[in-house]
Amino acid sequence: MSRSTAPASGTRLSLQARLLATVLGVMSVVWLAVAASTWYDTGHELDELLDAHLAQAAALLVTQRLDDLEGDNFPPPPTLHKYQTRVAIQVWHEGRLVVRSTNAPEASLASGDVPGLRTSMVEGDAWRVLTTPGREPDVVIHVGELESARHHILMASLRSIGLPMLLALPLLALGIWWAVRGAVRPLRALGQAVAARRPQALQPLSVQAVPPEVAPLVTALNGLFERMTELLESERRFTADAAHELRTPIAAIRMQVQVAQEAPSDAGREQALAATLQGCDRAARLVEQLLQLARLESEASYGEGPVRPGPSSADMAATARALVAEFERQVTARGQRLVLDAAAAVPSPLPAALAQVLMRNLIDNAVRYSPDGALVRISVGCSPEGGAGRLVVEDGGPGLTPDAMARLGERFFRVVGSPQTGSGLGWSIVRRLARLFELDLVVDRSAALGGLRVTVSWKQDGRVHQA
Asked: Which domain holds residue 407?
């Protein structure tokens, strides 16, 4: 039992969902990074600003004399701001608290008299304290601010920035969804247009209304439709031509059977039966060629990789010797001569069966279209330069015009006026094998015999032969 390796459709996300997840995920990460950076920068700048205020207040106190700060000379200041009560002032002289603001604790805001900024805990509250020496000896001034006040100011500042950003997130996500949905709309429309087509509708899709990113896909689909149209047209033509070619031998067989049935003598009946056998042979050969050509087309169309010379690659010299022996009786009956000039061994990229198909078609055409008593020469060897195998088949027939040579290989093409029977499929098979195994095929006139000369050459370096 075969097991499917394709993922279940329920586990695959659509392109729109993947785009949304990616964009929203990136946006969320960026938003959190911006929020963290804003929190840090705002807190840092706020501390710098409030520390400067502490330093300014301390600087004013340093300019005062201790006598001016004590007693009635330093009355409690009026409350001018809601955060004013969270700032405290202490003045110490010789370890004794001599001046403090009304909201300052009695305990020292900072232990010791080391100048500078620090954070300390006093009576359960966290204070940010600036310590500095006074104008007179043994005077220490502490100016402190509750950390809770700073936190309150920081949160108020962040709320004014972060709340609009937080409220904008759903609107931004909705806008991204709308933009992504609009971006993939051409793909959905393309899918719907292809799905709505009937199987026989192979007209190209319009590329005018699609975005540039989708245009290569539409172009590739149009190329596929064009190839399918050519393939279907070729198959229709092939089916029609094959039916036409098969109709002729079948009609001839039927006629000869009728003649045999109505023959008044045994001699006439035997002659009709012999003609019937010839018609059967012709039909069988036509069917065999059709099957060979269909098999080659299938290998070229549906092959999954390049055609590589394997251990079953044929020895063209041995194949030629076997086929010459096979054709010996046929050429002898017509007084023809079949001459073979072959090296000891000539490897080829073709498997043995296909090498026989290629060479049999070439020899059969040479023998068939040469007159009685003509010479057919077959040469198998290596090129003078080396590194390449070569097969040459030449005959003493009438040859072909340049136009006819150019059309060799078209299905069911036959030279007008030729007395020989045939379907023209042999050359189609030869051409297809040459393309499949990258054989160099040259057709010209034989200078020695005057007829057709076919030269097939191939590399012998073991390279990959592409179909």
From this structure: 306-459
- Quote the CA–CA distance of 58 and 116 in Å, as a whole number: 11
Look up residue 4 and give its two tokens.
């499917």
Are residues 313 and 292 both part of a single domain? no
pTM beyond 0.85 = no
Is residue 431 situated within a structural domain? yes
Any idea what the CATH number is for the domain that residue 450 is in?
3.30.565.10
Whether residues 292 and 312 share a domain: the answer is: no
Q: What is the pLDDT of residue 377?
A: 92
Same domain, 269 and 313: no
**Do 26 and 170 share a structural domain?**
yes
pLDDT in tens, 142-189: 888 888 888 888 888 888 877 887 888 888 888 888 888 877 787 777
- Are 390 and 288 within one domain? no
Q: Which of 139, 168, 183 is the last residue of a domain?
A: 183
Q: Do 253 and 294 belong together in one domain?
A: yes
